[in-house]
Amino acid sequence: MNTPSWRSKTWHEGIAHCQQSNQAYVLVTVVSVAGSAPRESGSKMVVTACESIDTIGGGHLEHHAIHTARELLVAGKPHTELCSYPLSSKLGQCCGGAVKVLFDVCNVHQQHVAVFGAGHVAKALIPIIAQLPVNISWIDAREALFPTDVPNNVKVIVEEEPDSEVSQLPPGSWLVILTHDHQLDFRITEQALKFASLPFVGLIGSETKAKRFVTKLTHRGFDDSALARLHTPIGSPTIPGKQPIEVAVSISAQLITMLHNKTIPVDKKPPSQDERCERQDNRVKHDDE
Hints:
31% helix; 6-stranded parallel sheet; 5-stranded antiparallel sheet; alpha/beta; elongated; Rossmann fold
């Protein structure tokens, strides 16, 4: 399912590749040159966590620029910084000139969303949320259900035991659980609630399913703090309907709200089991097929 790997050779190819794959990068640009220097003003390179693309002249200047760029990437924030470099023995260069280098940190802090299930709702949902500033892992055991083409920020994972992928998710990931199997849904949910680093566990389902899951999870020792991260049925309560596209739009609306608010809405006091199930009355969503 994955496209063949290729290596960008120019900085503009590098930017296109990073944008298409939602990968964070730093655009490094020589903005001014005084005296002798390895490259002229306007020279650019792209630096990611794993590679550098194109060149601003090589040598110690480029090595130092790559190191600086990766330090900025680790910070995980959009940032612009101008640095001056005298090309002297202190930098290990003997050109004798000086350059100013601009660092632009781009495409950082993309929210990761893990979608479990490749049924009708998931197929309606993925094209919508892939247009948002997110990276998506799309996970199912049934390879034949995935479309041949997926957006560049979507990684298809075919795994016989999808619940095993939960422990591999990066901290802060949001889960959208839409499988065809109630037992699998429960295993994924149970695994997710074991990790406090996974703040949003969204589960498709009905009132009966929600009540059964909460009861079973409570008996297995999950407290109110853990259960407060479980959102079922997933989706915005203001958007009705049970058709796959209606459910997908409802889920998308909830995710968009969270992206804009930068927080996941939770009650100050986690609701009791009865209160949780009572909320399902007007928000029953069918399970994916």
